[in-house]
Amino acid sequence: MMHTYPSRIIEQAVEEISKLPGIGKKSALRLALHLLKRPETQSLQLAHALVQLRTETKFCPKCHMISDGDLCGICASTKRDEKILCVVEDLRDVMAIENTGQYTGLYHVLGGIISPLAGVSPSDLHIDSLIQRIASGEFDEVILGLSPTMEGDTTAFYLTKKLAEYSIKISTIARGIPIGGDLEYTDEITLGRSIVGRVIYE
Amino acid sequence: MMHTYPSRIIEQAVEEISKLPGIGKKSALRLALHLLKRPETQSLQLAHALVQLRTETKFCPKCHMISDGDLCGICASTKRDEKILCVVEDLRDVMAIENTGQYTGLYHVLGGIISPLAGVSPSDLHIDSLIQRIASGEFDEVILGLSPTMEGDTTAFYLTKKLAEYSIKISTIARGIPIGGDLEYTDEITLGRSIVGRVIYE
């Protein structure tokens, strides 16, 4: 019986690929066999991109977003509202918010979210530099753009406490029923929150 | 608005990762950001494993299975039934059948399956060498171990025609209701086949 792989090379590839989140041994083997059927250049380019990603990626010294140059494009821009700062978990959130076209302020990328279960504590995140930016007094408002999850709420609570001593307006992105969402099928926690946090017509 | 990535390096990584089957741009970005948070060695080891996989993997000259040495472990073994040959699509099928512990014969790995939609024709597969192995007269039976899908059936039909001129017993793995499966919830094609292909008690 073959409980192991017929080749050390493929076993090693499966081992490394399956270290990625959400990819099990079976999917890893499927991906490895796929690469074996494709031209050699595809695997080499993928490998090269991964090495570059991890060894050459730079981060903006102001907002910690991934950036090719020194300052990122948003921090370097003169067209942004430099009085508003939006705190987010990572680059994906910046891209999602930028794609709405509704926000013109600056960002601060935490590089993660407080999660005792995943072993992520406040000291693992870019919180000290956030406090410094707020302490400098250059911002009027800080928006906590964190996901409405247990970890997001924990992080928001921690930041709110930390920022309490500075005279800055703190806000959070609105939570409620998604546009186009069906009230009847909304989970009760979201629905409850959207009633408590109702917006009064003015 | 940022419709593109803030860094050429991350864009390139996303581009290459999302060429893998079943991984879209969003998942690719998630994987890239994950690697950026992990130690550098993980990305370098993954890249190294991918290069090795594509440049150093060897194939058994007899059955075309991936193998480290010259002959694969199964072809080199003296404990296998050398009169039975099982034709399969790829390595995963060999591993699945070996794990059952119910088969002691040899294998022939086609390296794919006939699929006009995916542009895979018989000439892309190891069919010529299969015919040669059968023509040599060393086998009593060839088992078509192909999936009961449109492509699997097409390939089985093609091989059956090709092998018709040789005096060899051709069989296929049994199709029917899976063990533990519920007759009521079995799709009608499977159920229909399992009635037509019923096994008579002897």
From TrEMBL, chains A, B:
Domain Toprim: 83-178
SMART domains: TOPRIM (SM00493)
Residues in C4-type zinc fingers: 60-75
Keywords on record: DNA damage, DNA recombination, DNA repair, Metal-binding, Zinc, Zinc-finger
Parts of the chain that traverse the membrane: none
InterPro entries: DNA_Rcmb_RecR (IPR000093), Rcmb_RecR (IPR023627), Rcmb_RecR_Znf (IPR015967), TOPRIM_dom (IPR006171), TOPRIM_RecR (IPR034137)
UniProt-listed Pfam families: RecR_C, RecR_HhH, RecR_ZnF, Toprim_4
Family per record: Belongs to the RecR family.
Annotated function: May play a role in DNA repair. It seems to be involved in an RecBC-independent recombinational process of DNA repair. It may act with RecF and RecO.
Protein name as catalogued: Recombination protein RecR
Source lineage: Bacteria, Pseudomonadati, Bacteroidota, Cytophagia, Cytophagales
Gene: recR
